[in-house]
Structure formats: structure tokens, C-alpha cells
Amino acid sequence: MTDRIRLTIWNEFRHEKVHDSVKKVYPDGLHATLAKNLAKAGQFDIRTATLDEPEHGLAEKVLAKTDVLTWWGHMAHKEVGDEIVARVKKRVLDGMGLIVLHSGHFSKIFRALMGTSCALKWREADEKERLWTIEPGHPIAQGIGEYIELPNHEMYGERFDIPQPDEQVFISWFEGGDIFRSGCCWRRGHGRIFYFSPGHETYPIYENPQIIRVIANAVRWAAPLVNMPSDSCPNTKPLETIRSKRKS
Amino acid sequence: MTDRIRLTIWNEFRHEKVHDSVKKVYPDGLHATLAKNLAKAGQFDIRTATLDEPEHGLAEKVLAKTDVLTWWGHMAHKEVGDEIVARVKKRVLDGMGLIVLHSGHFSKIFRALMGTSCALKWREADEKERLWTIEPGHPIAQGIGEYIELPNHEMYGERFDIPQPDEQVFISWFEGGDIFRSGCCWRRGHGRIFYFSPGHETYPIYENPQIIRVIANAVRWAAPLVNMPSDSCPNTKPLETIRSKRKS
Amino acid sequence: MTDRIRLTIWNEFRHEKVHDSVKKVYPDGLHATLAKNLAKAGQFDIRTATLDEPEHGLAEKVLAKTDVLTWWGHMAHKEVGDEIVARVKKRVLDGMGLIVLHSGHFSKIFRALMGTSCALKWREADEKERLWTIEPGHPIAQGIGEYIELPNHEMYGERFDIPQPDEQVFISWFEGGDIFRSGCCWRRGHGRIFYFSPGHETYPIYENPQIIRVIANAVRWAAPLVNMPSDSCPNTKPLETIRSKRKS
Amino acid sequence: MTDRIRLTIWNEFRHEKVHDSVKKVYPDGLHATLAKNLAKAGQFDIRTATLDEPEHGLAEKVLAKTDVLTWWGHMAHKEVGDEIVARVKKRVLDGMGLIVLHSGHFSKIFRALMGTSCALKWREADEKERLWTIEPGHPIAQGIGEYIELPNHEMYGERFDIPQPDEQVFISWFEGGDIFRSGCCWRRGHGRIFYFSPGHETYPIYENPQIIRVIANAVRWAAPLVNMPSDSCPNTKPLETIRSKRKS
């Protein structure tokens, strides 16, 4: 581990190319906006990677030098190669942190790590969302206060089909009458995973300083302490004398 | 749901055909022994299924009529078809209970539901194992007392790469100096999953009345209360009037 | 354990005597309403107990014959004797179920079992509450559907100072902009505890069939499987020969 | 928060005065040994406090300047004043870290925070203990490796009557045939709590560098991020207009 956290920001980068409403908000892709704003928010060595690069920008050597990966995808989840998903999953289990953003709830990588469908309710109604801080003492909530208010956002609602979070940091209120577990932590293998729901592509959510602060906090929280294989299955010698052996 | 639990006992059924040491212990396959002993232990409608049957004995219509599935596999995990694994996983998320036994820790279905490698330490040294009851008030521990002692067993040891169990029912002591989380519960989707480590193929573990009692308890615990899709992702209407809409 | 669950409904029974607005809703005390409606909802042997009875109606012999206790209190938490609280707590740890209702969040018994302050935000603004079902597969949620709507209720909001629930069954949406973890499960000792927030004394909440259904489900879920002391601290003999002893 | 963690080491300091076997191991009290060794292990501003000091050395102003408190007690748990226990508990809920050592499992403060009896099995048989690292990626396990071996120790065994830990870092194997959840984390209010079982008073356990390393790691892990009251119960204004009000 270096002192500076090596952060890779992954973005599907398709909506920004084909939808004018998105291009207007994120002209260089939302990875570029995240990179720009996270650079101001922490001691991070940042690179970006996108779906249409070779190996989706996630070559072995890139992942080997990544402490924390953020993931935003939506319309092309199915185009992410299974081999790359397996590679990212192994890196998480070996210690790399993973921050899954918004529609990334339905990404192959998040579903593979959760073991559930990760389905949810949704609605595009331009409504108000308020993310309540459930655990103010949690590292990811530092500096946030009682809640974050988003004046207009896509609704994500329960039931969200996830394993119960190890730590529930935020729960959202929606104007249209729904609630949502919007900030959730899990440990898997030696890695830490944070799901954070804000970030619909038609709103400039990743320009919001509080949202960026949460993501920066999460990057620091998810940075690995160890980096070792979690998937060996060693045959080991006994540490104590065994006296129970059956006569053969 | 009927009053009687519909239990399907799945067994790889390979060791029993090729290894004399196993054939001696389980002449008709360990599924047959499990079926015989579980029939005495509960109000179960039991069927069995094995790897070499068409669709591994797990056709859609079989799973649709299965409340709880037990899974034992070892040498042929890779031969289980991915399509069947996806089918079983969907059934678990929709509500079916799953009891994973012994070397089933490395089955595709268990790994897919856990999201981790499910690796562990192991040793065949014929040593004593003692399973301590950690939660005597848990349904799966009813009638067991302080511990179960197995005079000789394969050692499974930590670290076991699993998500922290929702409920830890048993932890094992091994004569050779290791410990193991040997009875673990999780909820995933609408389904319940229990991993139980006893059952190496060269010992008559599934003739042990206490082991059978735990499995029968687990079948009752895992029987579904609901049976509904967990993976829809519905677009929903607001329940309250939305006044925040942006002017376009 | 008998087949029928022995249920004791405890009520502070003070508001109903001094506030006309409450007397109008619960003329015989809210324990009487709960008893009447729960009698229709399950196979329960019901008794009631109130603060002003000797030993608050919770003599040793009453508790010894109680499988599940429900608790409603508000204005007189401090008048509950510490000895009675210790007695109830011991019974819960030994296996008795406990259902804590509404303002019971600040009762001595709930705070003693949680170890936290159990503080929350609140507001009496006659607003709409919608309790979303987070775990439809949970026994306590059976028959409820997606949500319960209360047209007018007191607001209870986050942060609710509780240990993270072992199982989160309901989360509430409030018209005034708040959310609340309104249905929470914990295991403590051999006992099970459910906190359920509906039930402000000025609304006929305990006449609502869905609310009664949740409480009846919770009574069945919390009924003990074992009844044994959790607080002995036995000196035990080794089960294996100890060879490491230091020379003295 | 200052950069250096302000650590208060609390010790009952009675055994060392009355038992020669303990005085020999900890001539100045085990708090002195812990202070000496923890001073080498981290950037800590250390003070000690003992039972027989006024207010047990835990005056309001001491606690106000304490980020993390370690607690060792055994023969005189009952002499700790209830008012001091309430004061320490409030500080933990407000953010202070608490490390409970060995026989501190039966201290008033630990029991008050857990809500359970905290009873366990025990045996003084001079036997070997091996603490297995269950979560190598956890901050408290850094630098420890697969296990810590104690050649001779008092046995603490299951069932340990605690709420299931939020994170299980160590589980112990004992030569005499028992296992024990020996390193356990919980969050309560804004504070973090770690229970660590090594440290019987007749063995020089707190001279063991690995044990000291775990405690130093735990102090860093438990250091508070926030320091704020967790027990206010504010009446709040609605954030949204309420339209559902009943006509009166």
C-alpha cells in the first residue's frame, strides 16, 4: 500500500455519447466529473477506465495497482465481459475496495458479490430525495450532518434485494412516498464494498459537494489493509498430536 | 405451501461409485442414507436427485415442487451445469430453502449465493471434532445440547471465506488444533441458507442421530413462508403528489 | 412449552385515565383493545398486566408462565421498579419473547436490553406514515403485502439510537420528510425481541387489522424454543487431556 | 480530536495487591505493564486509572479527555459505582472507544452495553490457547498472521452470552476441548467496543508482543470520529408540508 490511495473510476460511458440530456450534464463523461471532483476531495492517485477501452480499461496490471474501484453502469451491463467480472471479483475478495454507484446496482460485478438479484423499484418523476444519516459515527458519514437533500432525482425504492448490509449508513426518503436503503456497507473476502444510490445520469449529482464527500469518505474507508489471496484452499498439517486415529 | 415440507436431497453420487471406502459406508449413495434417516426425523415428502440424471434431477417442475433442497457434492462440482445453478439460485432467492453439506462449500450454487470464494483449510487426519452449540435458542439447535462429538472426521479449518453468517449456530473444535464455523445461517432474497460442515464421505456421519437431527431442524427452519419472485425491477407510480418537478 | 402461546400484555395504563383524548380511543385501556384483537388473531392464552397492580402485575409466577410479553409505556417509565425490570430482563435472556411497542422505546426494559439510549426524533403533526416491508420472507411480515399505511400518526424519526437490528423488517416513510426503522428484530440471550413503532395513544392504531396481524406474527416469532438460564458462569472440567501444564 | 489518541487504561488493581502469584507477574499492577507496552506500540497519550482512586480515577474531566478506555476488572466488579458506570456508558454512546479485557466480560460497564449476562464457561487448567484470525482484513488483525498461540492460559469457553458480534475477528481453540469467541466488535451509539479475552492475571500475557499489537490496533480502530450526544430525543419540525391532518 502507498500512502496515497490509488483510485480507478470506471464508467460505462454510453449515455453521455447517445443522449443529449446526459451529454449536457456530463460533457466529458461522468467519470471525468467524478475524477475532477474527487481529486479535490482526497489524496487520491486517480485514473479512469471505460467500457469501450480494451479489457474495459481493467487489465490485470491496472487492477493490481488499484486500491479502490468505483463503478457506474446502466444501459450496457450485459456487454461487460464475464472474464473481466471474474477478475474484478477476485481483486475485491483479495482486498480491493469497491464503490458501486446508482444504476450499478444491476451490474454483473455487484450481483456476483451480493449473491442476490439486486432488484429494486424505480420511477423517473423528478422528485425530491432526502438521504438520512443513520450512523453519524461511521467513517463514510463524516462531515455530512443529519441528511443530504437532492432537489430532484430518480426514485429507487424498496424492496431492494440485497443481503442485509453489515452497516447501514444512509436511508432515503422520497417525495413520492417511498424509502430506500441508499448507503450500504458489506465486507466480502478481504475487501469492502459500499453501495451508494445517488447519481442518475440526467442530474448533476456528481457536482454536489456532499455527494462527493460521501464518495471520498467511502474510498478512504474501502482502501485495503491487506492484499492477499482469499481463495486458496490449503491442505494443512495438524498443529497438535492426533491420538484419535481409527485402527485400519 | 403444503403442511408437509417437500424435501429434495441432491447428491453428486460419484465417490460411492468409484471409491470402495465410500461404497462401504454408503452402498446406495449418501442421498439414500440421508433420505432414509430424514424420513424418520420429520414430516417430509422426500425425493432424491443426482448429478448424472437428466438436468441433474433438477428440472424446473422438480424445483417448483421443492420447499427445501439439500446439496452434497465434491469431486465433480465443475460438471454441474451453469444453467441449472442459475435455476436453483433463482428458486432460493424466490423462497426455497437450501442446506449445503460438507464439501458442498465449494459447489457452484453455494459460491454463487455467497459471493465469496468459500475456501477453507482442510486435512484428512482422522481426528476428533466437537461442534459447540453457540445459540441454544436457535431452531436448528433444538435437542442437541452443549455439543456434538464426532470421534473421527476430516478437518475443515479457518479462515473460511464466507460473508459473516447472519446467525452462527455451531463452531467446531478439532483435535489437531483448528476451529471452524461449522453451522452458519444466511438469508438471501426470500430464501434461507444453512451451511453444515459434517459429512465426509468415508465416515458414516449421516447415520449419526444428532447430525440427522440438526439437518431435520434446518429443513424445518429453511422451509419457505413465501414463494414469489425476488428479481423483478418494477417501474412504479408515485403514492404521493410530487411538487418538486423541475421546469423544463 | 404448551401448544398455545401464553401472552402477557403489559400496559402503563395512565394516559387512558387522565387524558380524555386517549380515554375516547381506548376506554378500557389499550391493553384491553390489544387483548381483544390479539385473541382473534392467534392461538394465544392472554392475560394483561398494568403498572399500578402489585409488582406491576409481573410477579415471578406470572413471568414464569409467560412465553411472550408485550410492553407499552410512556409517561411513567421512571415508576417501573428496577427490580421488576431486572426480573423481566432475566426472563428474556432465559428465553421469553418481548414485543416493545411505540413509546416503549424509552422504557427501562428496552434500554437495558439494547445497551443504548434508544433516543429518536419525534413530532406530533398528525401526518401520514407508510411502513414499507423490507423483508417479505420474514415470519413477522406474513400477510402484510408491500406496505401498511397509517393515515395519521405521530412521527418517530432517525437517528434512532439502537444497535443495528439483526433483521430489519419494516422501515417507515413520513409525510413530513422523515424515515424510521419501525420494525426491528434482535436476539438477546435465548430470547427474541421485536420493536414495532406504531401505536400513539391518541389514534386507534391497535384496531387496525394489519397492525394487529404484525403483532400476532411477532408473538409467534418470539415464542421461546428453550427456557433455560443464560447467566450461569460454570467452572467446567476439560474434555481432553491437558499436556501443556507449566512445571511449578 | 487530536492527532494522538488519548488512551486511559483502567485497572481494578486488587489482585496485584493481595495475591503473590499476581504481584510477581505485574509488580506495579497490570495497568502499568499495559501502559509501558502500549506506549511503544502507538502514538498514544496514556494515563491510567484504578478502582481505589476517587471516582475510580474516572472523573468527568478525565473521561472528557479520553478517546479510548481499556477496562480490566475481576474480583471487585460490584464495587464499581453505578454512577460511574452510567457516566462511562454515556461517553461510549457519545463516541468514546472501549476495549474490554479478559475478566472484564463480567464488568458492570460491559454488561450494561451488551444488554446480556455476558456469562461464559471457564477453567483454570494451565492449558494451551490458540486464537485464530477469522478476518485477516480487519484493522484489529493487522500484523498478526494466522493465529496467536498462548502456551498456558485460563480457559474461557462457549456459550458466551453476548449479542452476536458485528465483526468476529478472533475465535480461540483450547487444548482442553473448548472454543471461544475471543475477539469481538460491536458498535453502540456512536462508540465502538472491542472485547478481547486474553489476560488472566497469573500469566504475563500483557508482555506478549502480539497481544499488545492487537490491543494497540483495537485502540486505533475504536478511536472516535465524532463526539456528540446520542441520547437527546428532540421534538422536530416537519421538513415537508403536511396535508393529511385530521379535521378536529
Q: Provide the CATH architecture of chain A.
A: 3-Layer(aba) Sandwich
Terminal Cα span of chain A: 51 Å
Kindly estimate the percentage of residues of chain A that lie in beta strands according to DSSP: 25-35%
Number of strand elements of chain A = 9
CATH topology title of chain A: Rossmann fold
User: Uncertain runs of chain A with pLDDT below 50, 5 residues or more?
Assistant: none
Strand order of the largest sheet of chain A: 2-1-3-4-9-8-7-5-6
H/E series of chain A = EHHHEHEHEHEEEEEH
Number of helices, counting only DSSP H or I runs of 4 residues or more of chain A: 7
Portion of residues within helices of chain A: 10-25%
Mean pLDDT of chain A: 95
Q: What's the CATH C level of chain A?
A: Alpha Beta
Give the name of the CATH superfamily of chain A. Answer: Class I glutamine amidotransferase (GATase) domain
Radius of gyration of chain A equals: 19 Å
Secondary-structure class of chain A: alpha/beta
Largest sheet of chain A: 9 strands, mixed
Net shape of chain A: globular
What does this structure look like?
4 copies of one chain form a homotetramer. Chain A is of the alpha/beta class. Chain A has a single domain, classed as 3-Layer(aba) Sandwich (Rossmann fold). Chain A has helices spanning about 15-20, 20-25, 30-40, 60-65, 80-95, 110-115, 210-220; strands spanning about 5-10, 45-50, 70, 95-100, 120-135, 145-155, 165-175, 180-190, 190-195. Chain A has a 9-stranded mixed beta sheet with strand order 2-1-3-4-9-8-7-5-6. In chain A, strand 3, helix 5 and strand 4 form a beta-alpha-beta unit. The longest helix of chain A is centred in the C-terminal third of the chain and has 14 residues, at about 210-220. The termini of chain A are far apart. The model of chain A has no long low-confidence stretch (mean pLDDT about 95). At the A-B interface, helix 6, strand 5, strand 6 and strand 8 of A face helix 6, strand 5, strand 6 and strand 8 of B.
